[in-house]
Amino acid sequence: MTLYAVIFYVLAVVILASTLLAIIQRQVIHAVVYLIVSFFATGLLFYLLGAPFLAALEVIIYAGAIMVLFLFIVMTVRAESGEDKGEIYHWLPAVVLAIISFFVGGVLIFKIPGSKMSLNTGMASPATFGQFLFKNYWFPVEIASFLLLIGLVGALYLGRQESKKESEDRR
Amino acid sequence: MKTILFLLLSFPFLGGFILAVIGRYLPRRVAEWIACASVLASLLMAALAFGSAGEKRYLLTLFDWIQVGDFSASMTVYYDRIAAIMALMVTFVSSLIHLYSVSFMRDDRDYVRYFCYMNLFVFSMLVITLADNLVFLYLGWEGVGFCSYILIGFWYSDVVNATAGRKAFILTRIGDVAFGIAIVLFFLILDQLSIFSINSKVASLSAGTATLLALLLFWGAVGKSAQLPLVVWLPDAMAGPTPVSALIHAATMVTAGAYLLMRLFPVIALSSIAMVTIATVAAFTGLFAALAALGQKDIKRVLAYSTISQVSYMFLAVGAGDVTGGMYHLFSHAFFKALLFLGAGCVIQALHEEHDIFKMGNLRNRLPAVFWLYLVGSISLAAIPPFGGFFSKDRILLSTFSHPEPIYKFLALIAEIGAVITVLYTFRMFFVAFLEKPSAGEDLAKKDLKIPKFMVWINSPLALLAIFAASLNFPEAFGGKAWLAHYLASIPGGIPLFPASTPIERSMEIGSGLLNIAVLIAAYFVYRPEARFLGWPTPLVFRQRLEELLSSGFYLDRLYQVALVKPYQAMARTLWLKVDEAVVDDQFDATANIFRFFSFGLQLWTTGRLSTYLKMLLLGFTAIVSALALGWYYLR
Amino acid sequence: MIVPYGDVLLLAIILFLLGAVCSISRRNLLMILIGVEIMLNAAGLAFVAASLKWSLLDGQAFVLFIFAAAASEVAVGLALIVYSQRRTGSLNADRYDSMKG
Question: Is there a domain that residue A84 lies in?
């Protein structure tokens, strides 16, 4: 049991616990906050697995931007609280299916060769990563930026205040 | 010669075809002209062929029709002497009846349909007359049956007429099945479908095969010519227009059965069992029909039963081996029966569609010309000398009597009784319908419909022929020239198998002639208007039952209804309700219900709720991953 | 030596299924979206592990693209949620059933 393994298992427990708590929460804000914890831990895990750049990005984008966005929306939108009482028939099918998939997935994982092999440590420095990225995957990078532009425009349009004329048109 | 025969067949066919296609758009007179002209042209061709044929026989192929592997059926005609005179008779009588129809149907709006089918009928009948190839003959056979069905049910808006047409078609069909089987057997056994070749190869048939074939052909003829037991359609067929009854059910179609047997006579003559059967059935049919005719009230039904009876004489002739006698009677019967039917048509029309003879009377003053024509026809029918009907019927009786087998003597007796009753019913019909009634005479005449003179006078050629038909074959025993016998001597059966010796011939003819005249006088005393009663003085109840027995044709219709029709209908109803609806339909319904059940189940998934669809996504994901795992697990 | 490769994948799968369960069984539109985010994150984790195993950087590049897609998707999705909430006044997924039948 190397140190790295210990760190890994601890982080794994944290991630799982916080995610589990997140999906159980009745209030959305609580769920979001738990999820932020989960993403932080995931970022650390990325660092452990040799992707420091991605670790930083995980924290900045996922935990920092996306979850904050969620928080904004949650606080802006008045959600009625009496959402659902958590009846069993809502979550039972999902849980059953999930358990089945878990077992099947487990079988799959432990059948592939090399799953028992321990991962070597490694570190991809941001510079290396950046060179690699722009050498091989420059086109998808452009597309990704385009995608972000579209998202931006879409969000702007959907979020605008409707003028009186438009609401009358709709009626 | 080939052209003449080809034109002979094509003229009526073309006439019918043109009328079928554009008859509606032509003016009435033009359509009628086309119909009559085509049949008259046919008559001309028949006369030309007759004149130019002489002694020769012709076997000509007009058209190659079916050619499949080894089997070929071409439209071949075998023009020998019997075909020659038959064609002449058919075209002649058809022309007269077409001309008669022009004025008979003058008020009917469906004249195009009528003349089209009449023309097609003439074509089919000529095919039967001339055909050599049996399949070609079968075409004509079915054609006459079909045209008969259409023309019987011509006024189809009345259900009774349509039913009568159907009845005729079904019953003749029962006979046609046997004929079809016979054709197949001919092909299988003799490898031949040509009448000429069959007649030449007849020696190669065993007696048993010949019996089978002859009986099958006879059954087909029984259907077409309305002999027992397929007899019940002919009285009901009187629902059609009177010229149709005259043409189809007196002169041509009903004689087609006898004609077929005469054409294939060598086959039939080979089997004595068949000959006896034919003669027996014929004799009893004749007696049956004569008795039934005695009880009829409708003038056309009397004539219908009379036709059955007279056609049975032709069959009796074939059964006794005398084709010439059969043809002789066929001819004279065609003339006088057509005359009687057409005369009856005049009477019916003039009296506003009155069919009951007991409601007619005093026609001597109202329709004088028809009176005399009808008298000629009646005398001929009743076989009173010296008109043609006497000599033809007597010749047949003679041939039957002179047959060596003892049963034939018995059959000759039956036929003679039938002949006596023929006189009775004929003159019952004539005296009741035509003579003066003691009461209510003159006002009836005023209410009569005026019928065109043409309709009446067109019958005169037939009357003349009925009178002088005797000269066709005046028996040599009395010093006449038996012209027909000489003419037909060359065809098989032309010379009777058992000719009678001259003394017997003389005594029989004189004896039966006197007998008929005596019965005629007796009939006058019984049926003259002043002394009107059906028969002998019996208690009222018994007489009524006797009348019912006779007028319903010995309850034959009822018998068929109970024995055949009702069980069939019951079976059909059971199959419909119990099998078709309960089993077949319900199975379909059950299958459909399964689908309904499934789709109802599927309907539960279309909730429109997001969560449901997401659940389905996860389900799909699980399924795919499981499939992958299974594949991986088992492939490793 | 860190951990066996299979363990990391197992973690990824559990995370993914947690996200799936959240997405399916919650009625609140926001929770559904959060479930989607969890799933994307799990996928990214799997990619990083694979990239480390094979010593290839392609996996990490792909994770970058996942981040980009997730970000824009969240932006648009949240805008949609706000818009729908304004229109129908409810964040309950069950209210949006006009496509029923």
Answer: no
B558-600 pLDDT, tens digit per residue, is: 888 788 888 888 888 888 887 777 777 888 888 888 888 888 8
Domain boundary residue among A79, A114, A144? A79
Tokens of B263: 């054409």
How is residue A157 written in tokens?
């349009």
Angle at A68 between CA A62 and CA A74, to 5 degrees: 130
Task: Write phi, then psi, for C92 (nearest 5 degrees).
Answer: -85, 125
Give a yes or no: residue A94 inside a domain.
no
Q: Which of A75-89, A105-119, B294-308, B582-596 has the lowest mean pLDDT?
A: A75-89
Number of domains in chain A: 2
Look up the CATH architecture of domain C28-89.
Orthogonal Bundle (1.10)
Residues of B within 8 A of A106 (CB-CB) are: none
Cβ B606–C100 below 8 Å, yes or no? yes
Q: How confident is the model at residue A85 (pLDDT cuts 50, 70, 90)?
A: low
- Say how far apart CA B504 and CA B516 lie, in whole Å: 18
**What pLDDT was estimated at residue A152?**
92
Q: Give the span between the Cα atoms of B594 and A31, in whole angstroms.
A: 47
Nearest CA in chain B to C25: B611
Handedness of CA B72, B77, B78, B82 (dihedral sign): positive
Name every residue in A having a CB less than 8 A away from some CB of B: 90, 93-94, 97-98, 100-101, 104-105, 107-108, 111
Distance of residue C59 Cα from the nearest chain A Cα, in angstroms: 10
User: Would the pLDDT of B438 be above 60?
Assistant: no
CB contact under 8 A, C94 and B614: no
Domain hosting residue A60, numbered range: 1-79
Q: Rounded to whole angstroms, how far apart are CA atoms A91 and B357?
A: 98
Instruction: Establish if A88 belongs to a structural domain.
Output: no
For residue B174, give the nearest of B214, B122, B232 by alpha carbon. Answer: B232
Q: What is the mean pLDDT of residues A38-57?
A: 94
Q: Identify whether A108 is part of a domain.
A: no
The sign of the CA dihedral B179, B183, B123, B262 is negative
Classify B68 as helix, strand or coil.
Answer: strand
CB B294 within 8 A of CB B424: yes
Bond prior to B438 in cis (omega within 30° of 0): no
| Mean per-residue pLDDT over chain C, rounded | 89
Single out the residue of B524, B306, B297 nearest to residue B419, CA to CA.
Answer: B306
Is residue C20 less than 8 Å (CB to CB) from chain B?
A: yes
Closest partner residue to A108 among B619, B622, B629, by Cβ?
Answer: B629
Kindly report the nearest CA distance between residue C67 and chain B, in angstroms.
Answer: 23
Taking the Cβ of residue C66 and every Cβ of chain A, the question of whether any pair is shorter than 8 Å is answered with no
* Residue B398: C-alpha distances to residues A34, B407, B498 (Å): 128, 14, 10
d(CA B11, CA B6): 9
Q: Map out the domains of chain B as residue ranges.
A: 282-554, 566-635
Angstrom distance (rounded) from CA B321 to CA B326: 9
Helix (H, G, I), strand (E, B) or coil at B65: strand
List, in order, residues 6 or more apart from B315 with CB less than 8 Å away.
B221, B225, B227, B257, B258, B261, B278, B279, B281, B282, B285, B326
Cα(A23)–Cα(C21) distance, integer angstroms: 8
What is the end-to-end Cα distance of chain C in Å, rounded? Answer: 56
C-beta atoms of C98 and B606 within 8 A: no
Question: Chains near B, with 3+ CB pairs < 8 A?
Answer: A, C
User: In chain A, whose CA is at the least distance from the CA of C74?
Assistant: A66
Q: What is the mean pLDDT of residues B78-85?
A: 84
